[in-house]
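Retry 2 of 3 after timeout on previous attempt. Resubmitting structure tokens to design endpoint.
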């Protein structure tokens, strides 16, 4: 015979606790599975604006066309504002934006290495004598230098972004004024407007299929005309620092020193050191959970064109009181946003080097990101532990919760920047589309690898450069972690 538990006999505390734990775990798994499904989805609002997927035929036709007629400065010469008889100082002149800013204007180019986080070093660079034949010309400064730290959000590790992006910008503004500059255009970032995504919403919201809050966001300038947000209302330290830098530049606007800012959409691409195309090409296997994610991208040439448009407005001393001066403008490529899977398909179809994606589940990466952030900050709070525990290095160190706010659907618009100057806007028109810009970059990549497609060359992206700067600063004790 089998003894049955009387119906009126209560379960033991141990069995009750075990049952509660099992129920909780089952509900948690259901919640996480459903949340993962929602993170792999695309809201209806985004489906209405995303560009049609690129086909193999479109990619091959564009490749063949641009291989015969590559994009060069002469390709869009008629779209460049008239050349001005001026001197130019460009910070970050070797970068994605600074380089294209130089090409349409420069006849003679000099290079000065300087650490803009140092006021003295910045002043020395700006004080270098000019050749006598041009020293009398008016001076334009394009400030494009910055460090990109994509996912750190804690004030404990804000030091690098503050030193370069905030204090560095103040140093450049001060040095430019003393050097006699009357036009100053700075590159900031459309990520300034991104607010942290709320991943952990209520279970009933998830079960209703509504998903995380702010899972899609518009990239615009409206936040600039509102009071500055608190630090934790930005998605990461990078965006918070660029917002503060932007205010420094725009508040400096005056009749003697006309200023403005360009916010490139997330993210900028255009050569092998970019994080979007070049960073993906550098991996034969690309782990990703963002194939479905929709983003607005912008080529470095288009961003440079926006800087030149802005300069053409600000050379007029009366422009200091114009609607354009002392404010930012968001710019994107002149086409609807695309999905990351379009980029991946382009690389798989056109690149001579091997490329394939390794799909990951977003909710797993989210959970892992909290562990990495906790561990990283543990070593920051307790430096003695760093002598006993290893630091996380490589790309894994950037897998932190802040990253998921820029791995959501982000749509920018040229609606404001593209309006005519007569209407108080920038008159910006991009000179190449995302399709053309990305195909052109692959053409150049293939030319660089045609003799050894299996040996992928290594290039330093802006994120890796920021890591290198952080290591050097930490070694020198130059950047405070507090």
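Retry 2 succeeded. Sequence:
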């Amino acid at each position: 015979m089998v003894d049955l538990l009387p119906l009126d006999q209560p379960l033991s505390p141990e069995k009750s606790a075990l049952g509660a734990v099992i129920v909780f775990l089952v509900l948690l798994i259901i919640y996480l599975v459903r949340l993962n499904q929602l993170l792999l989805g695309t809201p209806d609002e985004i489906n209405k604006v995303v560009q049609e997927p690129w086909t193999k035929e479109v990619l091959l036709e564009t490749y063949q066309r641009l291989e015969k007629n590559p994009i060069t400065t002469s390709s869009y010469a008629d779209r460049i504002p008239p050349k001005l008889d001026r001197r130019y100082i460009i910070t970050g002149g070797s970068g994605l934006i600074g380089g294209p800013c130089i090409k349409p204007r420069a006849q003679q180019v000099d290079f000065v290495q300087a650490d803009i986080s140092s006021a003295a070093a910045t002043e020395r660079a700006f004080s270098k004598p000019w050749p006598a034949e041009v020293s009398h010309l008016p001076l334009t400064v394009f400030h494009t230098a910055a460090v990109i730290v994509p996912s750190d959000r804690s004030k404990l590790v804000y030091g690098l972004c503050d030193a370069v992006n905030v204090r560095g910008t103040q140093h450049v503004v001060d040095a430019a004024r003393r050097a006699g500059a009357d036009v100053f255009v700075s590159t900031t970032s459309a990520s300034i407007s991104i607010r942290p995504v709320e991943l952990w919403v209520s279970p009933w919201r998830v079960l209703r299929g509504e998903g995380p809050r702010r899972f899609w966001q518009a990239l615009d300038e409206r936040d600039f005309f509102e009071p500055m947000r608190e630090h934790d209302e930005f998605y990461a330290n990078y965006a918070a620092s660029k917002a503060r830098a932007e205010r420094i530049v725009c508040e400096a606007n005056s009749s003697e020193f006309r200023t403005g800012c360009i916010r490139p959409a997330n993210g900028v691409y255009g050569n092998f050191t970019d994080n979007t195309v070049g960073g993906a090409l550098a991996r034969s296997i690309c782990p990703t959970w963002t194939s479905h994610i929709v983003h607005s991208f912008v080529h470095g040439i288009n961003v440079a064109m926006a800087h030149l448009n802005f300069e053409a407005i600000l050379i007029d001393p009366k422009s200091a009181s114009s609607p354009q001066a002392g404010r930012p403008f968001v710019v994107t490529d002149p086409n609807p946003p695309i999905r990351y899977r379009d980029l991946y398909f382009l690389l798989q179809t056109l690149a001579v080097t091997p490329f394939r994606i390794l799909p990951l589940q977003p909710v797993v990466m989210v959970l892992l990101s909290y562990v990495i952030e906790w561990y990283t900050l543990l070593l920051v709070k307790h430096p003695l532990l760093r002598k006993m525990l290893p630091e996380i290095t490589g790309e894994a160190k950037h897998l932190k919760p802040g990253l998921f706010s820029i791995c959501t659907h982000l749509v920018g618009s040229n609606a404001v920047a593209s309006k005519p100057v007569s209407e108080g806007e920038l008159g910006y028109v991009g000179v190449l589309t995302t399709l053309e810009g990305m195909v052109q970059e692959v053409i150049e990549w293939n030319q660089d690898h045609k003799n050894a497609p299996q040996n992928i060359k290594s290039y330093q992206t802006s994120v890796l450069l920021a890591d290198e700067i952080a290591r050097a600063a930490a070694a020198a004790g130059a950047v405070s972690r507090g």
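Attempt log closed. The chain has one domain: 44-476.
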